[in-house]
Amino acid sequence: MSTRRKSIVAGNWKMNLDAAKARSLTEAVAARAAEAGSVDLVLCPPALYATTVAAALGLAAGGSPSGVALGGQNAHDKESGAFTGEVAPGMLRDIGSRYCILGHSERRTLFGETDSVVNAKVKAVLAAGLTPIVCVGESLAERESGRTEAVVTEQVLGSLAGIPADDLATIVVAYEPVWAIGTGKVATPQQAQDVHALVRALLARLSSPTVADTIRIQYGGSVKPDNAAELAACPDIDGALVGGASLKADDFLAIAKAFG
User: What is the Cα–Cα distance from 143 to 125, expressed in whole angstroms?
Assistant: First the structure.
């Protein structure tokens, strides 16, 4: 990893936990955040518990006293309107969120989000002053048919189209091979590094090599304490987007520590 890039480890809780467990997990992570060293820590709870997590992080007074940031799992591309069940980027910002996951493979595959939909959301989240964590990644069938490069290229260029270099420099990209999410399978460090290098080259096409070298690219897909160090040693892997392991403070912090 470049010395100019600060690692970022985010926990995607997905649709898990209840209010009491969300609060206790947040408090456990916040109390031990120093174990992660200089790594940026982000918790992304279900939207219904975002205020619970914000309160546990001490965000009511502004800032991030705990050293842990709050993030959303998704957002709409409009500021307001008749969109039942949706969450606007500004709503996330208002409760203290600093980040928002966009284009996760579950949103793409289960809810039909296309690159153009993700692109609109990225622009809206940026306009709201939040940092998008933009997910890309191929399915098992796509990898086995040799289409990884083509799929990831299309997703990166489509999801980030039309974004000025200055804004692009603030974005986090997460490479999550779909076949490794929640399956227990994980890309080998070399497989992950190869795609991360591809993503960085694509970011350079969208901006410049200098800007691309500053953009943080996370790996996601069954990241656990026992494989985090190998992934962290790769030059283009700047952190992790953690799913199941983020539901346990010990595991989440051990992963973060590996990137410290």
Answer: 30
76 labelled catalytic: no
Which listed residue (76, 104, 106, 196) is catalytic? 104
Backbone angles phi, psi at 129, to 5 degrees: 85, 15
**pLDDT digits over 198-218, tens only?**
999 999 999 999 999 999 999
Catalogue the E-assigned strands of 87-212: 97-102, 131-136, 172-175
Q: Which domains does the chain have, with CATH numbers?
A: 8-258 (3.20.20.70)
- Global pTM reads 0.95
Each residue's pLDDT tens digit, 160-197: 999 999 999 999 999 999 988 877 777 899 999 999 99
Residue 68 phi, psi (nearest 5): -115, 130
Three-state SS at 133? strand
Mean pLDDT computed over 120-149: 96
